[in-house]
Amino acid sequence: MTTSSLDDWSPADSPYAIAVSEAQWWLHAVELTVFRMREGEERWTHPFNAEQVDARLLILALRQLLTAEQLEQAALRDLDVDPAVGQALTAARQRFDGSLPGLRHMRNALTHFDAWSRGQGYGPQKDRRDAGEPLRDIARVFSAFGYDPGADTVTLGPYTIHVRVALEAAYDLCEAVCAAAHEVDKKTAADLRVKALQVLTNAGIQPDTVDALLQLLHGFDLRLVLFPDSDGLGDERAKLAQKVINALTSADICLISSVQPGAQDITMRLVGGEWLYVRPGADVGPS
């Protein structure tokens, strides 16, 4: 990828990948907070209890994993991926929700403490207001946030989350987000191979040769390779390589060295038998 393509990059181009990145970051945040909570040592937060600080961060990190799942679902719909992929991700989210009942309300109580501390929050607090319960009583019910090291639980009012369960649920949901993104990669690679096959065939290259050139590995890794020159036809091999590169470049298909991603001598590398990654994009280095 060239400097110009890097400058033109936007996260809006790959929201499904952003979802994976964010899911992994927030999973690590969950891991870190759990580790520190269980460590049970006072740190720079004195005079505040460090475990209680991390308990708050744990709730926020867990809820952010759901945001990553929502972004992944939106990307799956936009990319018209097999609905079964989204359904599998939905099942993972439902497992997560079932393992951590009340998580959304706990997060809301923490982030909207200005309203919840007065009994004026949404969700369960609104339900109680609608039933005529006094604001002071409502606020009291949804208070007393804290981490219990002995029970290894985090509680806010009527809601309790077991830390071990939370950690397992976080792993499961993050893995599901990554698995969904992997299916996007597989679809993208398969679609790109179909396009490249058609482009090269239209360029006059024999179908059998085209099929051998484009290798789809592991279902998601599309590569281009000229097999070893067993017949010693160096000139013909170079002509074929240049023809292939010209055709793909004109169709906005990018070839990247598998050894040196920034290399510009793409034709020489293809002639020499190096695998080249095939990616969408017009930035193919000069031959």
UniProtKB/TrEMBL annotation:
Superkingdom classification of source: Bacteria
Its name, as the record gives it, is Uncharacterized protein
Species annotation: Actinoallomurus acaciae
